[in-house]
Structure formats: structure tokens, C-alpha cells
Design goal:
- This protein folds into 2 domains: about 250 residues, Rossmann fold, CATH 3.40.50.1450; about 45 residues, no CATH class.
- The mean pLDDT is about 85.
- It is globular.
- Strands 1, 2, 3, 4, 5, 6, 7, 8 and 9 form a 9-stranded mixed sheet that branches.
- A hairpin with a 4-residue loop joins strand 1 and strand 2.
- Helix 3 packs across helix 12 and helix 9 runs antiparallel to helix 10.
- The protein is of the alpha/beta class.
- Helices cover about 40% and strands about 20% of the residues.
- Keywords: Hydrolase, Protease, Zymogen.
- Its EC number is 3.4.24.78.
- It holds the Pfam family Peptidase_A25.
- Initiates the rapid degradation of small, acid-soluble proteins during spore germination.
- It comes from Tepidibacter thalassicus DSM 15285.
Length: about 325
């Protein structure tokens, strides 16, 4: 299961269930389905669940919606409100808490620019609190934000930059926004994950750096991410599945053979395709062609939800 690249807890759970047909021990799952979206809350609460899932202990909330990529006001507002509701459950409504928002990723690569774009739209207020020597405000909370870049640009580990900043300004919590990777094409740009377990910068493309979590930063870390890429092996596996579904539906002969191919486990198909692609260096990372507009829209959704959650005076 761990051979398939995914940053989503919901997909790690699905891969285990595909093999075992049972729920994972040490993991609690709640699911809510509405007309335009589905919210799945997964809590990993012991070491058994952590080991099986390959994810750290904590809460993982996944919002899935086909209207996430819609750029009309009605769809955007609906998704913002859903995200706001889930963020409020995790962040609470304590206006005295100081928040540092980190936009992870490379602003020069569109599919990895979700973090920096979101940070550019966040309402920062720390300078106002310092200027007017305020500890509390009815409408605003103290928020600071930074896009630290990636090591290829700065020469500095992102975790080192964030750690130094946390030690200096002493926030009560850190919110990290980043682009993720999915194992399913259908979830790319149509899923938001909120996690209380922190995040590993670069994990989405297999370039894992030191994790940003409470153990390292000494403050709670909430991660918000959207899968913006899949690798070529995942994409190929999905295309094969769609082709087999079509052949099964249309063929009068050979259905048993097609069903046999369809019955292969996801990991078996993935590893088979990956083994074929990698000798030719073809297991590339894939993202949709309209990623520019999608990232822009997603950054608006996440920043607006954060602004409303952290600043109760905003309407």
C-alpha cells in the first residue's frame, strides 16, 4: 500500500480496505454526504492505525467536491462555507491566539504555487497589533504569513526557515498550505484535506523534507492541502480502469477476461505500470492543462475561508 504515492489519508484508508474489506484498527471514520460535496473525517488515534495508514496520528478532514474548480461566485461561496465550517471545528474561535500561516511550495511552478498564492491573499495583522500595542481585538486576530520558497531557490531547508521564524515571533499555532499528490485522477483539484498532524514539504512529488509538525516546531501545526498532481503510473492505471469498464459494458465476448484484469488490486496495477515506465524515465508528474486558473481559484477559496475563520469581524 505504501508504494503508491498519495498524501491523502482517505486514499490510504481506501487502499487498505480494498485489500482487507474491513475497517482499519486504531482509526475512526465519519462521513457526511451533501448534494455538491462530501466530507470525510478520519482520526488516527493509536500506533496500530498510524502504522497501517502510513500517516501520523491526528485528524484528517477531506472535502471532496466537483464544484471546487468552478469559478462562479455561487459555487465558490458554497465551498468556502464548507471549508470555513471544518476549519472552525479544528481551529476554534479563540481570538487571542496568534497564527502564523506558511505558504509552502515553489511560486515559479504553477502546480506547486498553491501555498504562495494563498498567502498572498491572506489578511495579515501582526504589524497592526504591534504598532498599536494591542493584545486583543473584537474583529481581528493576530496573523502573520510567509512563503519561504523551496531549497532549490533559497538553499535553506524550509523547515529551518519556519523553525527560526516560530522561535522568533512565538505564534500559538502554525497553518501550512501546500500542494499535494493523489493516487486518483478524479481527486486532483477537487479535494481539500485539513490535517492536525502537520506536513512534509515536497512529499507530493517524492522529495520529502523534514516534517513541519508539533514535535519539531513545539506549537500545533494544521496543514491544508489540495492534490494538484498525479504521477504517470497513477494516470495510466486510471485510464486502463476506464478502458476496461468500457470494454466490459460494450463487449459481448471476453467479459470474463476483462473482469479478471479489472480485479487486479490497485497496488499490483500501479507497480506493474511503474516498473514499465521507470527504466525509460517516464514516470513523470502530471497536472491538468488549465492549472493556472484552477490554482488561482483554489487560493481564493482557501484564503477566504482562513480570513473569515481567523478574523470574525470579516463578512
Amino acid at each position: 500500500m505504501k508504494n503508491i504515492r498519495t498524501d491523502l489519508a482517505i486514499e490510504a484508508r481506501e487502499m487498505y480496505s480494498e485489500d482487507k474489506k474491513v475497517e482499519i484498527p486504531g482509526v475512526k471514520v465519519d462521513r457526511k454526504e451533501e448534494k455538491n460535496y462530501t466530507v470525510t473525517r478520519i482520526e488516527i488515534f493509536d500506533e496500530k492505525g498510524r502504522e497501517i495508514m502510513g500517516k501520523e496520528k491526528g485528524i484528517y478532514v477531506t472535502i471532496e467536491s466537483n464544484i471546487l474548480t468552478f469559478d462562479d461566485d455561487e459555487s465558490r461561496t458554497e465551498v468556502i462555507n464548507v471549508l470555513l465550517e471544518e476549519l472552525s471545528k479544528i481551529l476554534g474561535n479563540d481570538k487571542n491566539k496568534k497564527t502564523l500561516i506558511i505558504g509552502l511550495g515553489n511560486w515559479n511552478i504553477t502546480s506547486d504555487a498553491l501555498g504562495p498564492k494563498t498567502v498572498s491573499r491572506v489578511l495579515v495583522t501582526r504589524h497592526l497589533f504591534k504598532t498599536y500595542n494591542k493584545e486583543y481585538d473584537d474583529d481581528l486576530s493576530e496573523v502573520s504569513a510567509l512563503s519561504p520558497g523551496v531549497m532549490g531557490i533559497t538553499g535553506i531547508e524550509t523547515s529551518e526557515t519556519v523553525k527560526a521564524l516560530v522561535d522568533m515571533i512565538k505564534p500559538d499555532r502554525v497553518i501550512a498550505v501546500d500542494a499535494l499528490a493523489s493516487r486518483k485522477l478524479e481527486r486532483v483539484n477537487s479535494t481539500i484535506q485539513i490535517s492536525t498532524a502537520g506536513i512534509s514539504p515536497g512529499a507530493g512529488i517524492g522529495n520529502i523534507r523534514k516534517a513541519l509538525n508539533e514535535e519539531y516546531l513545539k506549537v500545533p501545526v494544521i496543514a491544508i492541502g489540495v492534490p494538484t498532481v498525479v504521477d504517470a503510473a497513477t494516470l495510466t492505471s486510471d485510464v486502463i480502469d476506464m478502458t476496461l469498464d468500457n470494454l466490459i459494458n460494450e463487449s459481448k465476448k471476453g467479459k470474463e477476461f476483462y473482469n479478471m484484469l479489472k480485479s487486479l488490486k490497485q497496488e499490483e496495477k500501479y507497480n506493474l505500470i511503474k516498473d514499465i515506465l521507470e527504466p525509460y524515465n517516464k514516470n513523470v508528474i502530471v497536472t491538468p492543462k488549465d492549472i493556472d486558473e484552477i490554482i488561482d481559484n483554489l487560493s481564493v477559496i482557501i484564503s477566504e475561508a482562513l480570513n473569515k475563520c481567523l478574523h470574525p469581524g470579516i463578512n
